Here is the input.
Amino acid sequence: MSLPPYWLRDNCPCAECRDPRNGQKLFQITDLPDDLTITREEEADGLLHVLWSDGHRSRYPLDWPAQEHVGDGRSEAGKRLWTAADFAAGIPEADWAAYLADPVERAAVLGAVLRSGFAVLREVPVVERQVLAVARTFGYVRETNYGELFDVRVEADPNNLAFTSAAIAPHSDNPYRDPVPTLQLLHCLDNSAVGGDSGLVDGFRAAAILREEAPADFAVLTRTPVPFVFRDRATELRADRPLIELDPLGRIREVRFNNRSIGTLRLPAPELEAFYAAYRRFAAVTLRPELRLEFRLGPGDCLIFDNVRLLHARTAFERNGGRHLQGCYADLDSLSSTVAVLHRRTAALDAVADHFEGEGAAEYLGEAVTLAEHMLQAGALAEAAGAPAHLVAAALLHDVGHFDGAGLELMQGRDNRHSDAGADWLAQWFGPEVTEPVRLHVAAKRYLCTVEPGYRARLSDASEYTLQVQGGPMSEEQAAAFAAHPGAADAVAVRRWDEEAKYTDTATPGFDHFRPLLAALMR
Here is the structure.
């Protein structure tokens, strides 16, 4: 495999090179020797094994070097560029209650913001400051000189045209900031006025059209810093940025467009002429009717949109009519992080769910119920007892180490140490509050058989058999040591539900019932 040695070594995934908790590198690039070479490499066990000239050993998945570069998704390459007609069947939207309750729904809504630039939440409570609660479902509120939130309504002495009843052309908010707030939220409290409809234009699509129709003008707007300025009695802000900003690969990454906030551009006359010709052409593109998506926000609607991509607008409305929106700013990085974590958790939950339907889940292991039925019963018993969420999860997942056919080993007289195997597997996603009761639930059975009269007599035949394979009842010394363990009480609670969860006539919920609880516990 022909790969640059410093690149390969810099990406070594072992625990000596990267902190296993957060993936951060534990060395500086200058710590590597100047004459670093690969001494030996071979493929074995699905891995590329590399021995380095300084004695270090690395292992990589065979397909890892060929994996595609994904990028951060912030440029046009990671977006769905659109015109108004693309939403003829409806805009991205969801009910607030479903968004809160279902991580899949939340990921879909926030994913629409990343891909299409916006989404609308319906039936958000019509109360003051609720927009802040919406922002905090995926990130943090970006406070500005307007405060942590702002009211969009007619003001007696406005410091911004947004606080009048005038029509507002498609624009970006706060282009005079660096960094600019990358997300904006608008929550409708009242819209009983005549007029006041909302509009959105995909600024990336408009810029792409300009690039196609007038490449020279596009180039002018990407290389000319424009002074965006805002000032009032208490504030003076300025940021010099191009109207269209590209990433290092030449892809559209940001659009700042706000005629109201452009200050005086001072350049030689020929450059000013070129800029204003390009500026006017781009402005005309943003006003094309086919690019403008119009809709009306009603009370309880909350619009979330990408402020460095979409241009937002509104129609004029009657000055004496009722129109009141509350808005706030947030940032795309926190929303992107939330989406990534939601997808990661969904993938993890799918992996756990697959175990409940995979090899071994239908085995009875000497009991009257299958392994999957037994674990679902244990989770349901913990939930019915009012146990805290981490114990419900531990009861539900306590026997995952038996899956994939491993439980048959135990029934054949070989201790498969399924409690340790299960806890180690679950530790990919859950903290010790979940994994340790799983790890200790076998020890808890051995402990109870020693300290609680009559407990052993209540064991099923299969549980009595596995007790012997797993070491039998604890000695008095072992029991005392177990009782002193900080996780002993939780492990004993899980053990009791484990023993009770073996009835064939008990109706239990399926795995999907527990998904929200598990998702909330995941790291």
In short: The radius of gyration is 30 Å. The longest helix spans residues 332-357. The mean pLDDT is 91. The chain is about 35% helix and 15% strand.
